[in-house]
Amino acid sequence: MPVTPITELNERARDVFRLVVESYLGTGLPVGSRTISKLASLSLSPASIRNVMQDLEELGLLAAPHTSAGRMPTETGLRLFVDGMMQAAEPSPEERRAIEAGISEGGPIEEALSAATAALSGLSACAGIVMVPKREPVLRQFGFVPLNGRQALAVLVGQDGSIENRVLDLPEGVTPMMLNEAANFMSARFGGMTLRDAGEALRREMENERSALQGAARELVERGIAVWSHDADDRPVLIVRGQAHLLDDGTAADLERVRQLLEQLEGKEEISRLLESALAGSATKIFIGSENKLFSLSGSSVIAAPYRGGDGRVVGVVGVIGPTRLNYARVIPMVDFTAQTLSRLMR
After folding, report:
1. Taking every annotated instance into account, which residue ranges of this chain make up the domain Heat-inducible transcription repressor HrcA C-terminal (predicted)?
2. DSSP string, 188-211
3. Does the domain formed by 138-229 have CATH 3.30.70.120?
4. What is the pTM of this model?
């Protein structure tokens, strides 16, 4: 159904509609005319309010789930509210600090993305989602930092300045000198290559016995390349955190909808395809209920914002999934801020 332009509603209808939507988003319950009439900002009798609500229902903006049970906004009504009436509330200093605290520089980028998603989930009481950038870093430098006699920290520096660390089990007999030798060899031999190309080059050298390294140093190089290559192959495309937030007190009578949503979250490929549509834009996208066929059964909403890499290009998407009655005015700016924070991290 086409969304009725907000300009086609008179002032009385806009006031009643806004109050119904705000009350519904706060409680998750249908709103009756008597409830609206008690609000100090509206000087209308319950009978007048009922007439206005009936008109809004005929326009497809409100619906009555049960006879005389009050009204609630339809998905069309929610879209009108979000696009034309909502007054966004910027994240508080406490909310900003909570999001930023979960993101630390250094270490695997997925850890920062996961932490940001978990923080966003906790603050919004929704499931947090983030699409990990599909990237194959071009290598610049390798390093090994001994931790103890059996392990070392493998450090990879990319051409874009990114730094990632992994703990590596050491072969028997590796000395600190061997760690330096292997790191210098890898930096000189594989600098400027992707991990995939470096692995192929190492395999060819080993097959042809042309490697300058032997014994424990040679095995160390093999393990160093392997830990990065395997890790890149296993990286999740989509990280989901906070599914438990979807099982709040208000879902007890709506368990089938929640079950459908949880199943949809398990099918990460379909969610990823939805988020990919947000990669093409520069602004936050909002999908309400059946506007996207993926959520036609669960009646869920998605708020997703793109974040950028060091070169300014969009590399991923972060957002939340929750019920259509979520607090859009609060959550949309929160998702925006998380995307901006991730963009700063990726520079």
Report:
1. 110-332
2. HHHTTSBHHHHHHHHHHHHHTT--
3. no
4. 0.69
